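Why should sequence recovery work at all? Because a backbone constrains its sequence more than one might expect. Tight turns favour small or flexible residues, buried strands favour hydrophobic ones, and helices have their own preferences. The token representation captures these environments compactly. In the example below, the structure is given first.
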């Protein structure tokens, strides 16, 4: 809510100083809870040799790296690039997921005040292809370099030559501006580029990547005396990652080491959040462990319901129906036919069934087994069954939202009208047309053997949900809760909450907070998530009952279990 309000607030009248100080305190608190990425921990991808003068032979080569991650988590970096609009005051629409919003949100209101001062002095909008420098305020970086890229008419088939030159000018201007900044204590000057103009400004991504890489390389070759030592291309999507990888692969001066030509999903040399030591100690000293997991855990393991690339890879036939992410299928009612709907259900069930085991779940299982089987329990809103698939005993797992492994009668005609999905998979999969994702033999669409009603996935989506298959799990969960609540006088409990979002907080999030708040300090909560899902009530954090870790779950689990 704070970020939304600040996003919409104009720079004038200025906020009172005590309000600004309070906001800064909150933003610094949030930064301290984040997993930060040192710029020098990102693997080298390409080097640019310095030429033209004998004196340059003693200078280090310019390092070029490629990374997919959150630019606001980069630390030990001189400057990050902001793709701004011509007003240079930020984006005033909270719903826009643009880099301008992201950076202003993390930097705080003093950034908008500074930009307003600069623009008042300038007296006109910022031209395309220029650059201006400001402090980064509450960001881990030291400075922000702001540039305005070309805004492309979405109706045009390709950018004009003028627009291409303007985009190239953005990169050159940012590099020119970066040269004016001081070196760090190690004598380095590092900058991170975002993808300029490829979001709302609609510059084609492949072409933009080509212009970005080639402009930066050419600029460095023309400026061999530059103090810049490190350049990072920071991308947000897998699609952009592929475009930049291809452009860098085409360069002649690539590093021969194979490990340097890959982009790791997780980095090892990171800056842990402030609360990691407390969280690790709580886990080590606890008598009981609760693993409370939401969709963020599955996403960290690759089964990301917000990923357009995952959906396009496994369900290309559904793109024409306006479906772009797995989340889009939840509650979707505009299927062209029952055959297509069930083609998707069967394809998705098979994908989950074949999902590979992972080191992330292995680490969680190793952690749980330290407590002994009767001293831990998993409660998850995920219906994918990945805990059981990775070796967790089903008797220690509760899935109150259901599981994909079952089909149920939509009419809920009787309590036992529930059927294992696997019984239908083997005979139906060969009859799914990959071009349409439709079942070619509609007699294979499953119906209730008791009343003839069409079946549906046994997950909570309305009053039709049949929770019968999960009652035994729920009973075991509440027995476990009763046991730990009766023993908290001399025993301690830690809740390891992983990727629990805010869409359905009554399932896991609020119960976790209530259990922590009402335990007289015997229950500690370690909340791991990204952004809003990593927020927690200040009073519980300040009294030492909650530790927050804002960052990749796999990285966080590695830190907590090391």
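From this structural description, the recovered sequence reads:
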């Amino acid at each position: 809510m704070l970020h939304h309000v600040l996003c919409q607030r104009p720079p004038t009248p200025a906020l009172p100083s005590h309000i600004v100080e309070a906001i800064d305190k909150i933003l610094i608190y949030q930064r301290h809870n984040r997993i930060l990425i040192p710029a020098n921990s990102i693997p080298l991808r390409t080097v640019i040799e310095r030429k033209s003068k004998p004196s340059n032979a003693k200078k280090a080569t310019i390092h070029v790296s490629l990374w997919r991650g959150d630019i606001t988590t980069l630390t030990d970096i001189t400057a990050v690039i902001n793709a701004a609009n011509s007003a240079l005051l930020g984006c005033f629409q909270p719903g826009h997921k643009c880099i301008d919003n992201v950076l202003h949100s993390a930097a705080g209101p003093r950034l908008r005040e500074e930009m307003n001062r600069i623009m008042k002095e300038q007296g006109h909008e910022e031209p395309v292809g220029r650059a201006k420098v400001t402090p980064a305020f509450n960001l881990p970086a030291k400075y922000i370099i702001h540039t305005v890229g070309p805004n492309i008419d979405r109706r045009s088939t390709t950018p004009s030559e003028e627009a291409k030159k303007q985009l190239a000018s953005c990169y050159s201007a940012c590099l020119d501006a970066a040269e004016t900044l001081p070196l760090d204590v190690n004598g380095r000057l590092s900058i991170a580029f975002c993808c300029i103009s490829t979001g709302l400004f609609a510059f084609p991504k492949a072409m933009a990547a080509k212009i970005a890489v080639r402009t930066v390389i050419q600029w460095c070759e023309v400026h061999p005396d530059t103090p810049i030592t490190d350049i990072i291309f920071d991308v947000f999507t897998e699609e952009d990652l592929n475009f930049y990888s291809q452009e860098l692969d085409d360069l002649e001066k690539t590093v021969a080491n194979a490990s340097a030509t890959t982009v790791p999903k997780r980095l090892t040399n990171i800056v842990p959040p402030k609360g990691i030591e407390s969280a690790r100690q709580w886990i080590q000293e606890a008598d009981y462990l609760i693993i409370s997991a939401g969709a963020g855990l599955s996403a960290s393991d690759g089964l990301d319901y917000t990923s357009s690339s995952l959906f396009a890879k496994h369900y290309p036939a559904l793109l024409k129906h306006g479906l772009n992410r797995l989340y889009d299928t939840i509650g979707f009612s505009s299927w062209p036919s029952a055959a297509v709907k069930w083609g998707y259900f069967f394809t998705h069930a098979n994908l989950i069934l074949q999902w590979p085991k992972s080191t992330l779940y292995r680490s969680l299982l190793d952690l749980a087994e330290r407590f002994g089987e009767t001293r831990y329990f998993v409660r998850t809103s995920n219906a994918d069954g990945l805990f059981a698939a990775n070796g967790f005993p089903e008797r220690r797992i509760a899935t109150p939202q259901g599981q994909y492994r079952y089909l149920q009668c939509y009419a809920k005609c009787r309590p036992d009208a529930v059927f294992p999905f696997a019984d239908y998979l083997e005979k139906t999969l060969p009859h799914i047309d990959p071009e349409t994702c439709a079942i070619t033999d509609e007699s294979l669409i499953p119906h209730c053997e008791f009343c003839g009603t069409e079946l549906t996935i046994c997950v909570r989506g309305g009053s039709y949900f049949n929770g019968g298959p999960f009652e035994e799990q729920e009973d075991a969960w509440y027995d476990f809760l009763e046991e730990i609540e009766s023993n908290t006088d001399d025993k301690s409990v830690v809740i390891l909450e992983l990727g629990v979002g805010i869409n359905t907080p009554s399932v896991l999030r609020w119960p976790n907070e209530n259990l922590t708040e009402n335990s007289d300090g015997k229950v500690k909560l370690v909340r791991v998530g990204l952004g809003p899902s990593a927020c927690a009530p200040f009073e519980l954090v300040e009294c030492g009952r909650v530790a927050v870790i804002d960052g990749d779950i796999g990285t966080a689990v590695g830190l907590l279990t090391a």
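A few observations help interpret the result. Residues 161-178 form the longest helix (18 residues).
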